[in-house]
Design goal:
This protein is 36% helix and 14% strand. It is α/β, with parallel strands linked by helices. Helix 4 links the parallel strand 3 and strand 4. Helix 6 runs parallel beside helix 7. The structure holds flavin mononucleotide.
Length: 465
């Protein structure tokens, strides 16, 4: 069985002892509790590069999961994405230990300013040799807003509007401030940078203002590869405009296929090629040499899933306190200010609404995404089937027991995918963007709105001054 495109793979991680499967940190072989050491990250990066992964995708959240029972106690005691470290700071060590691996780093723009944030991204793009992506998120936890001294989060759609403004300001800095060739490094002439070729950016948007030059010289990609995750109606418009890659979930093939279709349509509506966005579907894969061994591994892991931890996570994501839900009561749709797309999936997507038991199931419903268990050939069949049925480009492989779930995938599934001709056998040269989009250059493609802020190119948006 072949698919018409080569599959893309990211290892989905977080700088926290627990990620999306609460409780697995307790498994005797899990090393996730060492998330605060460089060795942990360097080992992980080497494993992912050994498997020719496109990248490590680092989730992040600003705030703690205190929606469940109105307290963060469950999240803290069960390590439900708490404690968590700044994902930016674990990247340089991984970059030093690898040559090709990309890094998709999540940052919540709501609590950043474009001027210093653009420099932080540029710094990372320099230090990684052009291997950085930014997963643009806008936040969903009220606790994060309070931590930032705000009474409440911005309203759901307003977050995306502010995101448009943030991105426009950032494009101006990344693309329009420093001309190519502005940096001369001319020792004899005593000129490091030609001031005439570094332009002052004036941005006067509804949310952000800038009057200044970008602080850093252009990095290999200038604008990082732009990831996005969030598939509400407004989220899709945002992705259609800005995203070069989207991370999405969906517990059934039709649900995920619809999200992919809508996102490609949103890109088309924004004047871009629908296939200018790489779609990564979240997936949990439990693989072993034989099916029987894989099933027994799944059962072994399942014993460590922490129900309270799972409920704390889902309560935070949805903005709905699941402690109030009866054991067999189905979740009812409410419009919340958190992840609206997830609330829709859980209540209206799939065959039936979710119950408490579903959230704690170590299976497709608990994953809300492909959950694949089997021998290597069965896993490969399933991955290809999901990609074909949904038109996704690849998978963000969710961490279960670290590092063994990733190691098993690299050792057992990657060769299987390669032998079918659906996965690369070596890395292409170039930046993350060039690897994700063969034949492209290191910079944003011409049809991307950010490219319009480049000096000397036709302007799709008002020019940077
Ligand atoms: C698969 C997926 C992964 C996400 N990862 C993060 C994350 O790491 N950090 C974060 O703050 N938000 C994350 N989000 C939240 C989204 O960025 C977005 O804020 C949220 O889904 C609400 O938008 P929506 O209603 O358009 O989906 C994720 C969302 C999805 C669907």
């Amino acid at each position: 069985m072949t698919t018409r495109r080569e599959l893309r793979l990211n290892a989905f991680q977080m700088a926290s002892p627990g990620h999306t499967w609460a409780g697995l940190w307790r498994h005797p072989r899990d090393t996730g509790s060492a998330y605060n050491s460089l060795d942990y990250w360097v080992d992980l990066a080497r494993t992912a590069e050994r498997g020719l992964f496109d990248g490590i995708f680092l989730a992040d959240v600003l705030g703690q999961y205190d929606v469940y029972a109105g307290t963060a106690d469950a999240a803290l005691s069960r390590a439900a994405q708490a404690p968590n470290l700044d994902p930016f700071l674990v990247v340089p060590a991984m970059a030093q230990a690898t040559r090709h691996l990309g890094f998709g780093v999540t940052a919540n723009l709501t609590y950043e300013y474009p001027y210093p944030f653009a420099r932080r991204i540029t710094t990372l793009d320099h230090l990684t040799g052009g291997r950085v992506g930014w997963n643009i998120v806008t936040g969903y936890l009220e606790s994060g807003a309070r931590g930032m001294g705000q009474d409440t989060t911005r309203a759901h759609d307003t977050r995306y509007e502010a995101g448009d403004d943030f991105l426009e300001a950032a494009y101006k800095l990344w693309e329009g401030s420093w001309e190519a060739g502005a940096v001369r490094r001319d020792r004899a002439g005593g000129v490091f940078t030609d001031p005439a070729r570094v332009h002052r950016i004036r941005h006067d948007g509804p949310y952000y203002r800038i009057d200044g030059r970008h602080l850093a010289e252009p990095s290999p990609q200038r604008t990082p590869v732009l990831y996005q995750a969030g598939t509400s109606s407004r989220g899709k418009i945002f992705a259609g405009r800005h995203a070069e890659a989207v991370f999405l979930n969906g517990q059934t093939k039709p649900l995920a296929a619809k999200a992919v279709r809508d996102l490609r349509e949103a890109a088309r509506a924004a004047g871009r090629d629908p296939y200018d966005i790489r779609m990564f579907l979240g997936a949990t894969v439990i693989v072993a040499p034989t099916r029987a061994e894989a099933l027994s591994l799944r059962d072994e892991y399942a014993r460590y899933i922490d129900v309270e931890g799972q409920l704390a996570l889902v309560s935070g994501w949805t903005g709905i306190d699941l402690s109030a839900l009866g054991p067999d009561e189905a979740l009812a749709y409410v419009k919340t200010n958190a992840m609206q797309s997830l609330v829709e999936n859980l209540t209206q997507g799939g065959e039936r609404p979710f119950t408490r038991a579903d959230f704690a199931e170590f299976g497709p419903r608990g994953a809300r995404a492909p959950f694949i268990v089997g021998a290597p050939s069965e896993v490969a069949d399933e991955l290809v089937a999901w990609a074909e049925a949904t038109d996704a480009d690849g998978f963000n492989l969710t961490r279960a027991v670290a590092p063994e779930t990733l190691e098993a995938f690299v050792d057992l599934v990657v060769p299987e995918l390669q032998s079918r001709g659906v996965f690369k056998t070596r890395y292409a040269e170039g930046t993350l963007r060039e690897k994700l989009f063969p034949g492209s250059g290191p910079h944003l493609g011409a049809s991307h709105p950010g490219a319009g802020f480049r000096r000397g190119t036709p302007q799709a948006f008002p020019a940077a001054s």
